[in-house]
Design a protein that fits this description.
40% helix; binds ligand AN7
């Protein structure tokens, strides 16, 4: 078997790159699809839930799928620098791929509102980190303004190459399952990812979609029908940052899931089109629900995702309980980012370490106290 060299090389004929385009890649993609073993029984539902664990990408989130495309194209176009606004993961990914490509990277982040792991990545990869006294939506607006006058290439998901790279997640799910799932659940922040998922599924089904906004000159990769149908898309937002659920922008979004602390998503219309065409819906989860399920996944399945990612499963469990998703279904949940991204939130909600003297007796005491009863 050939050595895996990343999603551009693998899906070259389904992506807007030339046969000889040299990919800027960190071998992103090919993430595992992990069947949940314990959670369905725990909630007493006869369903098959699979986690597409995007936290296992090179920088720990799904953003690498879009970033390999965006940076590859930026380099081809001769860009000297890229720029993005970010709640954290886009900045981490942009910083890494810019380093790989040997170009400069500027990231705008909301001061004090990005997870520590993500900040450490943007800094360590040598990007210029600009903290703004404002939120992601302010940053997004500023990036678009500044790119009009400065020689910087925007790598947020308004860059169509980002969406093209991210659509490959649907290709991988179809390959792994031998077809689409019945439902696909994921978090919705700036709404690029749900749009990309739907484009990937639509292309695989040989179907058209209004979610696809093609810039001039870009091919439509809708091909021969490889699968018969598309899944129902379930998009979940945090209650304090749920503009699409509410039907209006949220001026001051707030949630513990800082990755999706977004009040006015750029791909709002495309996401609504995707959801409608699929027969799906948007719903919300509270911070408490998000954190409860993040911990549940970590402690019953061994899967440590970040809070924003856990909302895919939290929302699904609610919709299972409501009977909106029926028993017998197969559901894929995209776990968008790794739990290590946000150590503060993880530590704050976990049992504290016990400190004892370095003596056998003390250790035995702790073991006796915590050993499961036979
Ligand atoms: C873990 O990094 O917007 O709906 O600037 O980091 O495509 O925005 C992150 C978004 C879900 C939402 N899960 O995806 C950013 C940023 C995680 C994320 C989302 C994000 P979109």
């Amino acid at each position: 078997m050939a050595h895996y060299t990343g999603l551009i090389d693998k899906y070259r004929d389904r992506l807007p790159v030339a046969a000889d385009t040299r990919a800027v890649s960190l071998c992103e993609g090919a993430t595992p699809l992990i069947e949940l073993r314990n959670l369905p029984a725990l909630v007493r539902k006869k369903v098959r839930i699979l986690a597409k664990f995007e936290g296992l990408n090179p920088t720990g989130s799904f953003k690498d799928r879009g970033m390999t495309m965006a940076v590859t194209r930026a380099v081809e176009e001769g860009a000297r620098a890229i720029i993005c606004a970010s709640t954290g993961n886009t900045s981490a990914s942009a910083a890494a791929y810019a380093a790989r490509a040997g170009i400069a990277c500027f990231v705008l982040i909301p001061e004090g509102k990005i997870a520590l792991g993500k900040l450490s990545q943007a800094m360590m990869h040598g990007s210029v980190v600009i903290q703004i006294r404002g939120n992601f939506d302010d940053g997004m607006r500023l990036v678009q303004e500044v790119a009009k006058a400065q020689p910087v290439n925007i790598v947020n998901s308004i860059n169509p190459y980002r969406i093209q790279g991210q659509k490959t997640i649907a290709f991988e799910v179809i390959e792994a399952l031998g077809g689409p799932p019945d439902y696909h659940a994921l978090p919705v922040g700036n709404a690029g990812n749900i749009t990309a998922h739907w484009i990937g599924y639509s292309e695989s089904a040989g179907a058209d979609t209004a979610a696809l906004r093609l810039p001039e000159g870009m091919r439509n990769y809708r091909k021969q029908k490889m699968v018969e149908r598309r899944p129902i898309m379930l998009g979940y937002q945090a209650s304090g940052a749920a503009p699409i659920v509410r039907g209006r922008p949220v001026e001051n979004p707030e949630t513990v899931a800082t990755a999706i602390r977004i009040g006015n998503p750029v791909s709002w219309q495309q996401a609504v089109a995707a959801s409608r065409e699929s027969g799906g819906w948007f719903a919300e989860c509270t911070d408490e629900e998000i954190l409860r399920v993040q911990k549940l996944l970590a402690q019953t399945e061994g899967i440590f995702c970040e809070p924003a990612s856990a909302i895919a499963v939290a929302g699904l469990l609610k919709d299972l309980e409501l009977g909106k998703v029926g028993e017998g279904s197969t559901i894929v949940c995209t776990l968008t980012g790794h739990g290590l991204k946000d150590p503060d939130v993880a530590i704050a909600q976990s049992a504290k370490p016990v400190t004892v003297d370095a003596e056998l007796k003390a250790i035995e005491g702790v073991i006796r106290q915590h050993l499961p009863k036979t």
